[in-house]
């Protein structure tokens, strides 16, 4: 276990390196921070931190920089989440409240996160499997053609065309719409198949084929993989950190193009807790020089999806964690009110 003083020295090294981009020396630390000890003592503490693998010497200069292990300890023990200022909070609220639908909410969230953190922002669409049904709309387009519209509690809208095996009158459409909604509104998607399985039997024999076709389309919509959709923004921000990546930012950009990689990075969508993965904690080799800060968002206590940022390990962790958490909270409020 490190002493409190050495933890303070590590905190000071992380803060200075993130702020200045320069390796940090003992003289600079004692000048910039009230550590209450001599430069010689700080040098001794730095030697212990280096021996323990929390800091490293990038070249023969006197300065040291944090390692992945050092950043990990900083995030776990030393970094409080930096709260946003009232003007920042108001700006977030005003920007997100202007959204007209779910696509707009997600698009605005990505832009906002990228601007606030100056990192790459990643937002996952709310998952269908963790959503509940708000409304099912059925519209007659032609005697044997319907449009099915599924609206979720998170504001997601899915539309499907249904070609009926026989003409289906307006009265029958209204009847099916009413019966469907009475069965499924407010229910979890996983429960819907069980709730509607006997519905065709309650219709006249000549309408049962069409009712079954509509239900098949509805159930197909529920299980489609469209839920694993991600939006990414701010990749141009990486170019500001070129010197933070050992060789080139190309492997990072390549990894960010892989949806499966990003979904793994964000973690399990139902987990609302904030996660911070640093450097080599990211399994994908192309992202070994990056850190990921992610948190769940949703309209209730349970997360329906994740959002977060990807940036270099030399990151303002307290500020980034504060921004990610605040944006997630506002997105959740907007979904709850939509």
Topology:
Blueprint: H1 4-20, H2 26-32, H3 39-51, E1 55-56, E2 65-66, H4 68-78, H5 86-97, H6 102-117, E3 120-124, E4 133-142, E5 145-152, E6 157-163, H7 170-184, H8 192-196, H9 205-223, E7 230-233, H10 250-256, H11 259-266, E8 275-278, E9 290-297, E10 305-312, H12 317-337
Antiparallel strand pairs: 1-2, 3-7, 3-10, 4-5, 5-6, 8-9, 9-10
Characterise the protein shown here:
The chain is α+β, with helices and mostly antiparallel strands. The mean pLDDT is 86. It contains twelve helices and ten strands.
Low-confidence stretches: none
Q: Structural class given helices, strands, pairing?
A: alpha+beta
- C-alpha end-to-end distance: 49 Å
Instruction: Give the DSSP E fraction (strand runs of 2 or more residues).
Output: 15-25%
Radius of gyration: 26 Å
Q: Which outline best applies?
A: elongated
H and E string: HHHEEHHHEEEEHHHEHHEEEH
The helix tally amounts to: 12
The count of DSSP E runs of length 2 or more, i.e. the number of strands, is 10
Helix content range:
40-55%
Taking the sheet with the most strands, its summary is:
5 strands, antiparallel
For this entry, give a set of tags.
single chain; 338 residues; five-stranded antiparallel beta sheet; three-stranded antiparallel beta sheet; 12 helices; 10 strands; elongated; alpha+beta
Short overview:
With 338 residues, the protein is α+β, with helices and mostly antiparallel strands. The chain has helices at residues 4-20, 26-32, 39-51, 68-78, 86-97, 102-117, 170-184, 192-196, 205-223, 250-256, 259-266, 317-337, and strands at residues 55-56, 65-66, 120-124, 133-142, 145-152, 157-163, 230-233, 275-278, 290-297, 305-312.
């Amino acid at each position: 276990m490190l002493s409190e003083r050495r933890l303070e020295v590590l905190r000071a090294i992380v803060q200075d390196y993130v702020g200045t981009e320069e390796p940090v020396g003992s003289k600079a630390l004692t000048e910039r921070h009230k550590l209450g000890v001599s430069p010689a003592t700080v040098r001794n503490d730095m030697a212990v931190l280096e021996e323990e693998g929390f800091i490293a010497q990038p070249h023969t200069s006197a300065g040291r920089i944090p390692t992945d292990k050092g950043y990990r300890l900083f995030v776990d023990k030393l970094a409080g989440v930096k709260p946003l200022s009232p003007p920042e909070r108001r700006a977030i609220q005003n920007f997100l409240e202007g959204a007209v639908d779910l696509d707009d909410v997600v698009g605005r969230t990505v832009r906002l996160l990228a601007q606030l953190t100056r990192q790459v922002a990643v937002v996952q669409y709310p998952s269908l499997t963790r959503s509940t049904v708000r409304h099912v709309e059925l519209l007659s387009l032609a005697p044997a053609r319907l449009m099915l519209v599924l609206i979720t509690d998170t504001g997601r809208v899915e539309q499907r065309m249904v070609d009926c095996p026989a003409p289906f009158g307006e009265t029958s459409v209204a009847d099916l719409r009413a019966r469907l909604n009475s069965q499924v509104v407010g229910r979890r998607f996983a429960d819907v198949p069980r709730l509607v399985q006997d519905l065709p039997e309650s219709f006249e024999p000549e309408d049962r084929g069409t009712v079954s076709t509509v239900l098949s389309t509805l159930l197909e919509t529920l299980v489609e993989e469209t839920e694993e959709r991600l939006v990414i923004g701010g990749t141009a921000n990486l170019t500001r950190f070129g010197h933070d990546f050992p060789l080139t930012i190309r492997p990072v950009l390549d990894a960010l193009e892989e949806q499966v990689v990003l979904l793994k990075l964000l973690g399990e969508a139902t987990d609302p807790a904030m996660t911070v993965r640093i450097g080599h904690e990211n399994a994908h080799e192309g992202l070994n020089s990056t850190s990921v800060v992610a948190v769940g968002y949703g309209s209730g206590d349970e997360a329906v999806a994740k959002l977060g940022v990807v940036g270099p390990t030399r990151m303002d962790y307290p500020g980034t964690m504060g921004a990610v958490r605040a944006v997630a909270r506002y997105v959740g409020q907007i979904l709850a009110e939509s």
